[in-house]
């Protein structure tokens, strides 16, 4: 039910133009992970409940996820992530809203490099970003893969000096979304 609410919210954000001409692709089970590596510690987590929607008429794209859906191999690390760094009770979601720059004929099967430009909101802070990825179309379904870098300081995420050497200055974020027509 919660995933349907997230997907409904994404659909709301993408309501542009004539609803009858829109072709929407979406998922509520996309995978987003992040990786931080320093000489002192490797930190990684995965979220398998990320929502994504693409409007193939307007090329608008939205991705949303609950911060608490990130799972870490170490439960104490997960607790610190939610309570001390991302403050997930105060800032429960991360959101990207933007537009794919390239015009792709999704009715034709193929693999297409794409760039989505828009805004990303994490920890209550919003920043303009461009995310590069690959869009694979089968004609009926889409697969979207992406990778980008995030600096915690860009999103006002405070890292205490005691652990600053355990968290990379730049975090690698990857995503894999399998989208179907809605």
TrEMBL record:
Gene3D superfamilies: Lipid/polyisoprenoid-binding, YceI-like. InterPro entries: Lipid/polyisoprenoid-bd_YceI, TTHA0802/YceI-like_sf. Residues 58-176 form the Lipid/polyisoprenoid-binding YceI-like domain. It holds the Pfam family YceI. This is YceI-like domain-containing protein. It comes from Algoriphagus alkaliphilus. The lineage of its organism: Bacteria, Pseudomonadati, Bacteroidota, Cytophagia, Cytophagales.
